[in-house]
Structures are given as C-alpha cells and as structure tokens.
Design brief:
- By secondary structure, the chain is α+β, with helices and mostly antiparallel strands.
- It has 2 domains: 36 residues; 189 residues, no CATH class.
- The protein is built from 8 helices and 7 strands; from the N terminus they run H-E-E-H-E-H-H-E-E-H-H-H-H-E-E.
- A 3-stranded antiparallel β-sheet has the order 3-7-6, with no helix packed on it. A two-stranded antiparallel sheet has the order 1-2.
- Helix 5 crosses helix 8 and helix 7 runs antiparallel to helix 8.
Length: 255
C-alpha cells in the first residue's frame, strides 16, 4: 500500500469519526430537549412523516380511542389461557400443520401485545391509528403461517381490489370518464375493532367450502377463530381487551 493511499484511508477514517461524533452530539441534544419538554417522537399514519408531540397529548389521544370504542381494562393476563387454547387447536389441525411444524410455530415465551399509536394528521383533531405489536402474542407465529395458507385457498373474487395507490392511478388512467361521473372515497372509522368475528368466519367458511375439503375447511376455520379471538394488548402496564372486533395487528388480517 502506498503512503498516499494510506493517508487517504486515515483521512476518511478521521472524517467518519468526526461525523459520527457530530451525529451523537445532535442526537443527545434532541433527546435532552424532548425529555425537558416531556415530548416524544412518533410516526404519522400516512407517508413517512415524523411527529413530535407532548406526552400528555399522545396519551390523551390513545385514551380517547379506548373510550370511544368501549375498550375496558381486564383484571388478569389471559396470555397463558390463550397459549393453551391455540396449542390445543393446533394439535387438532393435522391437515393444516404436521407435528414436526408444531415446535417452530408455537410461541416460546408468549407475552401480551403492546399498543402504540400513529397520528392521523390528515383527519380533524388528529386522531390515532392504533398499532398493536403482536410479535410476542401466543398466536403470532401460527397466524403468519395461516396467512399464507389462506391466500392460497381463500378465493374471494375481489375483481376491483388494488395493491397500492400506484396501481390504482395506473388503472384509473385507462378508464374513459364522462363529465357526469363522480369519484367518491369511503373510509371505515376504527376498522379492526368494528369487524364482526362471526360474520367474518361465516364468509371465510362458505368461500373455503367451494374449493376445499370440508374437514380441511373446518380445521382452517377453527384456527382462524382462535387467532381472531385473541384480541388484547397492554398499554401503560394495564391489559385491555376490546369487547368486539378482531385481533389488531395479527398477520391473519393481511388475508
């Protein structure tokens, strides 16, 4: 290695160290300002916007969401009960998962999911979008696998479903529009806490029966019901369970 090359490497290393120290200094100052003003950083619901909000305002919005949807605290942690229930269901679904798969899809150390929030900056009064992190939930691993299975076997015939806004824009550019046409958008407020579980299961079962074996369908719906009913989360060291709707944050919702 030449002396010139070695000098270039040393200079680059020194510049990287200076940049790193500068970044740490800035991050520390931001952290101190947030702590001093009792503020936090969170995400907006749409786009990649970062939001700084006072802690008391953030928690006030979450409590408003809980109150509006009649989500009450429960006295005991149901995690162990849910773990037992999902494990028992899994053993009875031999057409869905073989015994060798049980070890890999059973949650090792289950814990209650946690509730966080993203802010809907595009809505009046900036309500929240609840974000439930389900990675520790008893049904999470099974729900991930079941999601892929449902996509393969559940044909809902959604002729007008689009993957994203880009696809929608491309599709609309091919449509011939008349002056009398009007475009409308509809939005469901607090979607997941308002989805009826029994109707969802009935729809899934009737569609699955069209193309699949009855026993296979029954086992699939049994697991799906167990997953959707595990609807609970923690917030500020308190466990909550909605009295309606499906499990928020579950991978099974992607189906």
């Amino acid at each position: 290695m030449t002396a010139k090359k070695l000098t270039q490497i040393c200079n680059t290393h020194n510049n990287n160290n200076k940049t790193h120290k500068r970044q740490l200094y800035i991050a520390k100052n931001i952290h101190n300002k947030l702590s001093k003003n009792k503020a936090i950083i969170t995400r907006a619901d749409k786009g990649k916007t970062t939001v700084i909000i006072y802690e008391h305002e953030y928690h006030k919005k979450i409590r408003a969401f809980l109150s509006e949807n009649n989500i009450e605290p429960i006295p005991t942690d149901p995690t162990n009960k849910y773990q037992t229930h999902i494990t028992r269901n899994l053993k009875q679904c031999d057409l869905i998962f073989c015994k060798k798969q049980h070890t890999h899809i059973t949650q090792k150390n289950p814990a209650p999911p946690t509730l966080k929030a993203q802010l809907k900056l595009h809505k009046p009064n900036i309500p929240i979008r609840p974000v439930v992190k389900n990675r520790t939930a008893p049904s999470y691993q099974i729900a991930k696998k079941l999601n892929n299975i449902l996509k393969q076997h559940l044909n809902l015939g959604n002729s007008y479903t689009v993957e994203n806004s880009t696809t929608l824009a491309n599709d609309l550019s091919k449509v011939t529009l008349k002056d009398s046409y009007r475009m409308i958008t509809l939005d469901i407020k607090d979607l997941y806490v308002n989805i009826p579980i029994q109707e969802t299961l009935q729809t899934a079962r009737s569609q699955l029966h069209k193309y699949n074996d009855r026993t296979f369908t029954d086992q699939l719906c049994s697991l799906l019901e167990a997953i959707l009913n595990q609807n609970y989360f923690t917030y500020q060291n308190q466990i909550y369970r909605p009295n309606k709707g499906v499990a928020m944050g579950s991978p099974a919702q992607d189906s």
